[in-house]
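Ops channel
N.P.: pipeline sanity check, posting one input/output pair.
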């Protein structure tokens, strides 16, 4: 059914950039699917609570960002490939975490499908 696979993580120096990608299957990003799907990025560092990073709506492209990443990260979607990207700039050590993509049906309200995650490591 619905599958999400995150990739693109790696090692980067503080101030550098990475681009994460989330390949999805089982639903479409063109806004014609049922239930108003959206895809979000979350992250979790060891000993820390899971944090919402960004999300994007399939039907209208509306985006949102967590305060800690606003102005540095950009989320986008490619409807043709069912892929969501997270372009991260000016990475900071506090951005180091395991990043997950997840899918929500806005009509339901909770993220119910999650990818495995990709590790982002930021060195000083």
């Amino acid at each position: 059914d619905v599958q999400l696979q995150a990739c693109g993580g790696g090692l980067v120096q503080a101030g550098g950039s990475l681009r994460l990608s989330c390949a999805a299957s089982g639903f479409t990003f063109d806004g014609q699917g049922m239930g108003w799907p959206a895809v979000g990025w979350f992250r979790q560092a060891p000993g820390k609570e899971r944090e919402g990073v960004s999300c994007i709506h399939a039907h209208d492209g509306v985006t949102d960002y967590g305060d800690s990443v606003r102005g540095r990260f950009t989320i986008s979607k490619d409807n043709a490939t069912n892929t969501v990207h997270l372009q991260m700039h000016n990475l900071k050590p506090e951005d180091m975490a395991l990043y997950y993509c997840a899918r929500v049906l806005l009509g339901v309200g909770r993220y119910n499908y999650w990818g495995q995650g990709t590790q982002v490591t930021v060195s000083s």
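N.P.: looks fine end to end. The longest strand covers residues 97-105.
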